[in-house]
Write a structure and sequence with these properties.
Elements: H1 2-9, H2 15-19, H3 21-31, H4 39-68, H5 76-98, H6 103-112, H7 114-131, H8 135-141, H9 143-149, H10 153-168, H11 173-199
Length: 200
């Protein structure tokens, strides 16, 4: 109970400045040549990984509530928006710094490289969620429609994990671990949903 009370007194807006500290550090490190031999590649990859971390954190909120009785629901929207911020920064670095707004080259990457195709699909799935992550959208869409729309987060985070796996081009343990955790969380949600339907 003490732990639960501790979390409830922390304001949700703290998620934004605290969550974006790694991004600020990564840009500083990249522009001061502290990210290794290829700082641009490291910056792009690290931003993408932080996006995945926050997406996974968002998926963990419901299991924590149901299994451990730790209620972090009030932070879910902020966590989701910070995740999208990292996705957007990851994409901006790729478009502006890596490809330098070479739109035909970018289109060629999307068509020919599966990991970029899947990554772009994940971004497009997350975009309407970020746009509607506000109380006005909940009122305009209605709670039920809004909840259904935000279920797009599930395929989006799965696409993000697959994007990471394909990016490495080998069976690297870290992206595989992300994929395994995400699959486990999605399977848990699916069986919870099936159980609720059967008992309804």
């Amino acid at each position: 109970m003490a732990q639960s009370r501790f979390w409830t007194v922390l304001p949700s807006w703290l998620i934004y400045p605290v969550g974006l500290i790694p991004a600020a550090y990564l840009f500083y490190a990249a522009f001061t040549n502290q990210l290794g031999a290829d700082p641009l590649d490291a910056l792009e990859n690290e931003l993408g990984e932080w996006a995945l971390k926050f997406l996974v954190a968002g998926l963990f909120i419901t299991p924590l509530l149901r299994v451990a009785r730790i209620n972090l629901v009030k932070y879910r929207r902020a966590i989701g928006l910070v995740a999208f911020a990292y996705v957007a920064l990851h994409l901006i670095v790729y478009v502006a710094l890596d490809r330098q707004f070479g739109w035909w080259e970018i289109w060629g990457d999307i068509v020919k490289r599966p990991y970029i195709t899947i990554g772009m699909a994940a971004f497009l799935l997350l975009l309407p969620l970020a746009i509607t992550s506000n109380n006005a959208s909940v009122k305009k869409l209605g709670a039920s429609a809004w909840r259904n729309l935000h279920k797009l987060a599930y395929p989006a985070v799965l696409f993000g994990a697959v994007h990471y796996v394909l990016l490495k081009k080998t069976w690297h343990p870290e992206p595989l671990a992300y994929l395994a955790v995400i699959l486990a969380l999605l399977v848990w949600r699916y069986y919870r949903y099936r159980k609720s339907v059967q008992t309804a």
